[in-house]
Structures are given as structure tokens and as C-alpha cells.
Specification:
By secondary structure, the protein is an all-alpha fold. The protein has 3 domains: 124 residues, RNA Polymerase Primary Sigma Factor, CATH 1.10.601; 52 residues, Arc Repressor Mutant, subunit A; 47 residues, Orthogonal Bundle (Arc Repressor Mutant, subunit A). 16% of the residues are buried.
């Protein structure tokens, strides 16, 4: 891969230079360049300067995925900059694990990886003091075992009974209980911002589907298949869904009946669904 003075990069001599600035790329160009970079990455030996350069370029090109994922958690107290840094780690993991030969879009593969990395960051930073991973896991086991034993015994279990159930020492049980005191979980009843604006407590906001993330994938797919339509078909879609004209108004505009417009739209939309 070579850079020229205009800020473009060429991956091969028979490929035209493409702008490497993500801001100047549309969705189709970004996807095409990402695909080319992944193919190039497969040809390079991991650990070499060329491999690192191509991978870093992939990170820069796909930073919008990290920003999209981080925006889902802006209600959290953690700084956005920290979430972005953690999201980059997830993006690098996604790049390392992505196999372009499987026919899956990179954005579809990477988004869950980036989001999962940010969620793990929240789990690790929800402790008011640093607690070893062993004690963090023990706290979870203690909570589950305590609830199970309490139902079985009809009373709160003793330290000895918990130790026997978990096959640990009583001292470890006491350590686990101390670790639980260091854990700070946010309350669902805590208000988030101005209640008049967002509906009040966090519990009212849980379970809401983030349609923006779905739109990222859908719009990317749509941008790929729209160029396959004829100019007349694209014009018909624009009149109906952009200009918001009725079928009768479209018929008057293009000189045909409302029924014919309906049939044309049905055929075009069926083709788009197959493309999706």
C-alpha cells in the first residue's frame, strides 16, 4: 500500500487510488475499501509493519462503528472518551477475527464485538475499589448459592453451609462477602437527565429497541443494491418515498394509470426485498 501526495492510497498497481479519509468516503466506497484491505491483510504476515499499517487503516476507516456503539451508552457516568478507547479494542478484536470468505458484512460482524467490549468495561468499572477477578466471580457464586440455600432451608444459610455448597473455605466466603460490599450497581430508579425530557427513571428506558443501529446495516445494504435499478425505477422510488407523492399523482407525473404505478412499485420493492 502506497500513499501519494494527494492523501490517497493504492493497494496494488492495477487498482485506482482511493481516498483514505473516512470523512470523504460514502458508504459504498467505505465498504469497497474495507473489503480490499481485508483481502490485502490476509496476504500479509502478522507482526510485520505492512500488516500493522493495513490493520490500523481498517481501524481508522471503521471508527464510525465505535462511535455508534458508544452513543448507546451516553447515559452511563463513564466518560465518552473512555468508552471510545475500549470500543477501539473491540474493533481491533473484530478485525483480527473477521473472515471475509464467510460472506458476512464486516459491520454486521463487528458491531456485537465492539458493543460487548464496552459492556465488559462497564462490568469491570462498576467496582468502587479494585477487586481481583477471583473475588468478583466468587461474589456471583455466593449470591446464587445463598438464594438457592435460603429456598431449600427456609432461612438464611450460614457461612459453613455456603462454604460446603461452593467447596471453598469459610474464610473465602467471608472474603467474597467483603468483595460484594465494594460492588456498586446503578439503581433502576435513578433518574437519567431531565425527567421531563427522557421519561424519568432508567427502568422506563430499558428494553427500547435502538433502530439507529439496525438502520446502519439496512442503509448500507440499500446503498449497494440501489445502483442496480434503472434510472426510471429510481425516479419512481424518489417520487413515492422522497417526494411523498400518491400513486395517482405519480401516474399524472409520468403519464400512466394509478394501477400501473402500483404494479411497478410492487415489482421494484419485491426486487429490493430479494436484494436485502
Amino acid at each position: 500500500m502506497n500513499h501519494d501526495s494527494s492523501g490517497t492510497c493504492a493497494l496494488d498497481t492495477d487498482l485506482p487510488p482511493i481516498s483514505c479519509d473516512p470523512v470523504t468516503l460514502d458508504v459504498l466506497e467505505l465498504r469497497a475499501l474495507t473489503d480490499v484491505l481485508f483481502l490485502r491483510l490476509q496476504e500479509l504476515e502478522e507482526g510485520t509493519a505492512a500488516y500493522s499499517y493495513v490493520r490500523n487503516t481498517l481501524v481508522e476507516l471503521n471508527m464510525s462503528l465505535v462511535r455508534t456503539a458508544a452513543q448507546r451508552f451516553t447515559h452511563r457516568p463513564e466518560p465518552l472518551e473512555d468508552m471510545l478507547q475500549v470500543g477501539v479494542v473491540g474493533l481491533i478484536k473484530a478485525i483480527n477475527g473477521f473472515d471475509p470468505g464467510r460472506g458476512v458484512e464486516f459491520v454486521t460482524y463487528a458491531m456485537p464485538t465492539v458493543t460487548g467490549e464496552i459492556k465488559r468495561f462497564f462490568r469491570d468499572t462498576s467496582w468502587s475499589v479494585h477487586v481481583p477477578r477471583r473475588l468478583q466471580e466468587l461474589r456471583l457464586h455466593l449470591a446464587k448459592s445463598s438464594e438457592a440455600l435460603e429456598q431449600e432451608l427456609g432461612r438464611e444459610p450460614t457461612t459453613a453451609e455456603l462454604a460446603a455448597r461452593l467447596d471453598v473455605t469459610e474464610e473465602e466466603v467471608r472474603e467474597g462477602r467483603i468483595a460484594a460490599d465494594a460492588y456498586t450497581a446503578g439503581t433502576l430508579a435513578a433518574p437519567v437527565g431531565d425527567e421531563d425530557e427522557d421519561g424519568g427513571p432508567l427502568q422506563r428506558r430499558l428494553g427500547v429497541i435502538d433502530t439507529d443501529l439496525e438502520n446502519v446495516v439496512d442503509l448500507t445494504a440499500l446503498r449497494q443494491i440501489l445502483p442496480e435499478l434503472s434510472e426510471a425505477e429510481r425516479r419512481l422510488l424518489k417520487l413515492r418515498f422522497v417526494d411523498d407523492l400518491t400513486q395517482a399523482q405519480i401516474g399524472e407525473r409520468i403519464g400512466c394509470s394509478q394501477m400501473h404505478v402500483s404494479r411497478l412499485l410492487s415489482r421494484i420493492l419485491a426486487g429490493l426485498r430479494r436484494g436485502f
